[in-house]
Amino acid sequence: MTFRPLALAGASALALLAPVARAQVAGPPANTDQPTPQEQTGAPEPAAAAPTADAATTADEGNDIIVTGTRTAGRTRLDSVAPVDVLSAASLQRQGTTEVATALAAIAPSIDFPRPSANDATDAIRPATLRGLSPDQTLVLINGIRGHTSANLNTNGTVGRGSAAVDLNTVPTFALDRIEVLRDGASAQYGSDAIAGVINLRLREARSGGGAQVNYGFYDTQVDTAQNSRHVTGEHTVTASAWQGFAFGDDGFVTVTGEYTNRRPTNRADLDTRVSPARVTGRYGDPAVEQYTGFVNAGTSLTDNLSFYAFGGYQDRDTRSAAFPRINPAANSAANTLTRQRLALAGYPDGFLPLINTKTKDINSALGLRGTFGGFDLDLSVSYGRNTVDFRTLNSTNYAFGSASPRNFDDGSVAYDQYVAGLDVTRKFDVFQSLNLAFGIEGRREGYKISPGEQASYGYPTGTTDAVAGSAPGAQGFGGFAPRNALKRNRRSGSVYADVEAQMTDKLLLGIAGRAEDYSDFGSTVNGKLSARYDFADWFALRGTASTGFRAPSLQQQYFTQVASVVTNGVPVLTGTLPSVDPVGRALGGLPLQAEKSTNLSLGTVIRAGGFDLTIDAYRIHIRDQIGLSENISAASSPQVAAILASTGTGVSAARFFINGLASTTKGIDAVAHYRWRTTGAGAFDFTVAGNINDVKVTRVPTSTATLNPAPTLFARSRILTLEDGTPQQKVTGTIDWSLDQIGALARVTYYGDVNQPGTTPAGDVHSGDRAITDLELRYNATRGAQIGLGVSNVFDVYPRATSVANNSTGTLGFPYYSPFGFNGRFLYVRAGLNW
User: Where is 235: in which H helix or E strand?
Assistant: First the structure.
């Protein structure tokens, strides 16, 4: 762990998160921390008719009211007991991307969003990480209500392998008012998943006004792979967005947002030396995407002390990524002769590139009532979320079908849904200087389903064909789900919590929280949290927390099933990813999954004077009973394993499943420095430098199961190093944001420490290298009227290190897909819009 990047960023005087602080909702005056009448009663607050002309001219951002990490009304981010980033919609939109996850990673110091490619559905549903932990160890809320995870389970060798995480990109940036990021363990406050922290997406609220915007961008980049150099211009992305606020009654509002995105695929593959002459045969980069999204957010008062609120969102996403190319090899060998026979029968004599087509449909919805009764503020809510992923393989073949094989396949689908009902109660008492009591209950029902695809996507033909002998069944690139994989499972859980914050004196704030949860599958858990803050002076405070946390095993981890034939030495071998409680999993020593558990400690300081504020927070997160997806346990690994697999009578010759038992310790420091300089003639300047230093160490690795002691390798070197080195150990972002009346400019530099994409041996490791990415933007923003922005992301066309020839036998993997900033190069964009 080193502090060199922080020192470099400070010396450069560039700043992060210039927007780290601005929320644009109507709220209490900037010079007071007192709650508004709406906050006291829970009635909805009507938002401004249109966004401010430039967020850099807003009032002191340190007084932004937060609702994440505290249940005390009126708490600001600089008065909180734990670090909270407040990221305005303006800061998210002043970039070349319209993806929430990508925008967050660019400005939040502890969030990373790698862009995997050639990894099946993970290319389409990419998970984000907080503080280097697993994507499913961060809780995502929408308007304070638990969001649902994706139905997709990441089973390939990517960052976040084995996780089913929330897809942040199902909510468009244009629908957001702000995002609050709690960088602290919060399971005692919010329940499962909040080990690393909480991301709360706050939707836009407006009674009138509206806006429309079109973003157009393209790449202009020099691609220098290990064996090839070429210039690429094009690969455009177009996003059209619009929102409108409607008023009804005295304070009712309905805010509607719609967005359409069309993104062309990118390709950063290297030369394929298996063909002669060598040429690019793969497609490696961002997938093609066509996406429609709509969101509605609404609220109104029903009586003087009762209000109604609701939101709903729907997204339809069609994504097409590429698998590895199947080529007609130039060299002569028995294996290559067999390949040529298969290609000829399939009608692809020159080879083909399979495409993996995922069609994702996502629903977010909630409704609720807020009111004041007997001095207590009540919030009763019900939410429903659903995610389905339909898989298709295009431009492919099933070798087992020979010339009778179709070229496009329906591979089946996965689906996840979630119902949540909760009641939150708060009341402030005149005890000490003040005491805020909150308590509540929550019930949740989750469901998971796998539906099989057509026979040609997974199996052998029913009749005789001219297939080449020894060909494994299934669509090349992505084999479909077979009937043996089909399942439907659900579970229920219930929880109760209590949360107390007491302002003991002018200087001392104490908090205590506790939560008990019971799940119908793995059992019960109880977690607690202590927090304290002491303000030594108006300009200086210390804060700290200590908590325990947990993450319930997901239904996807417990029940995902995919069995396929893999040809080994010319013989099809039935290989499965199976539940740990499947007959095969149990025979190999699999046990019912238990919850992951954590212990979180943090200590920080808050310094502020005039327009300057600085927060520094150190943390330690110890996770035990961590869940990991094992390597394949093969009959070839030992006679004992062969005998066990034979005894199951399933025909499966190799299997992998999820196992508890990993342990890790994460240590790090977050620092955010922000200075606001308002001049009379030169405009307003925001300087911010933010950095994260993060070190993950795996401290325990299981080596046995209930029946295998010792077992064949359960977690390979590459899996352990992915947890330790798969995200940057240092990340620093510096931003200067300037505005004068309706014009403005932004300059951002983000430094990423080296990331290791590990191989089975050190020789197979692929490092991204230390890199700095520079972004620039000029803009004209009118409160009402035209808006335009011109920008360049990655001005100096920086790439991670190219993948060596030795680690890229097919030429497909031109650059490491672990790269925290991707591998697409310079992106130029224009943003044009209109506010009314």
Answer: strand 229-248
| Phi, then psi, of 434 in degrees rounded to 5 | -170, 155
**Are the beta carbons of 76 and 63 closer than 8 angstroms?**
yes
Q: How far apart are the C-alpha atoms of 85 and 87, rounded to whole Å?
A: 6
Specify the 3-state DSSP secondary structure of 338.
Answer: helix
Identify the sign of the CA torsion 447, 452, 458, 459.
positive
Describe the chain by its helix, strand, coil percentages, rounded to 5. Answer: 15, 45, 40
3-state secondary structure of 546: strand
Q: Output the CA torsion sign for 191, 691, 103, 623.
A: negative
> Dihedral angle at the C-alpha atoms of 9, 15, 16, 20, nearest 10 degrees?
140
How many domains does the chain fold into? 1
Query: Does residue 50 carry a pLDDT above 50?
Result: no
With H, G, I as helix, E, B as strand and everything else as coil, classify residue 116. Answer: coil
Rounded Cα gap, residues 544 and 800, in angstroms: 37
Tokens encoding 220: 């202009």
Identity of residue 197: G
Residues 6+ apart with CB under 8 A from 810: 272, 274, 281, 282, 324, 325
Contact between 587 and 568 under an 8 Å Cβ cutoff? The reply is no
Calpha distance 377→39 (Å, rounded): 10
pLDDT class for 43, splitting at 50, 70, 90?
very low
Residue 764 · residue 740 · CB < 8 Å: no
Q: Which domain holds residue 345?
A: 4-835
If one counts every other C-beta atom within 10 angstroms of the C-beta of residue 486, the result is 13
By residue count, the chain amounts to 836
C-alpha span between 273 and 285 (Å, rounded): 20
Judge if the upstream peptide bond of residue 820 is cis by omega within 30 degrees of 0: no
- Pair type for strands 138-142 and 145-146: antiparallel
By DSSP bridging, strand 176-182 and strand 84-88 are antiparallel
- Domain of 98, CATH number, reads 2.40.170.20
Rounded Cα distance, 475 and 410, in Å: 10
* Tokens 């504020």 sit on residue: 613
Please report where in the chains the tokens 């130029």 appear, as a residue.
828
- Exposure of 547 in the CB half-sphere (CA atoms within 13 A): 35
Tell me which H or E stretch contains 79. none
- Residue of 759, 756, 835, 766 lying closest to 802 (CA atoms): 766
pLDDT of residue 665: 98
Structure confidence at residue 466 (pLDDT) = 86
pTM exceeds 0.70: yes
Whole-angstrom Cα distance, residue 210 to residue 246? 9
Q: Which two tokens stand for residue 231?
A: 């210039």
634 Cβ contact list (under 8 Å, min separation 6): 641, 653, 654, 712
Q: What is the pLDDT of residues 744-765, one digit of tens each?
A: 999 999 999 999 999 999 999 9
Neighbouring CB atoms inside 10 A of 784's CB total 12
DSSP per residue over 661-716, as a string?
EEEEEEEEEEEEEEEEEE-SSS-EEEEEEEEEEEEEEEEE-----SS-SSPSPSS-
Residue 436's CB is within 10 A of a number of other CB atoms, namely 21
Token pair 């996807």: residue: 556
Rounded average pLDDT over 567-595: 85
Answer for the pair 357, 320: CB distance below 8 angstroms, yes or no.
yes
* Per-residue pLDDT tens digits for 373-400: 999 999 999 999 999 999 999 999 999 9
